[in-house]
Amino acid sequence: MRNPRIVVDRKKLRENISFIVSKLKKHQLSTMAVTKVFNAHPEVIALYDEFPEILYFGDSRIENLMSYHNSRKQKVLIRLPMISEATEVVQYADISFNSEIATIRALNQEAVKQKKNHKIVLMVDLGDLREGFFEREALYDCIQETMKLENIQIYGLGVNLTCYGAIIPSSKNLGDLISIKTEIEERFNLPIAMISGGNSSSLYLLDSSEDMLPIGINNLRIGESFVLGRETAYGADYKQMNQDAFTLVTEIVELKEKPSYPIGEIGVDAFGRKPQYVDKGNMKRCIVAIGLQDVSLDDITPKDSQIEILGASSDHLLLDLTHAERDYKVGDEIEFTMSYGSVLSTFTSKYIKKEFIR
Ligand SMILES: Cc1ncc(COP(=O)(O)O)c(C=O)c1O
Question: Which listed residue, of 115, 149, 188, 290, carries a Cα 20 to 30 Å from 94's Cα?
Answer without folding.
Answer: 188
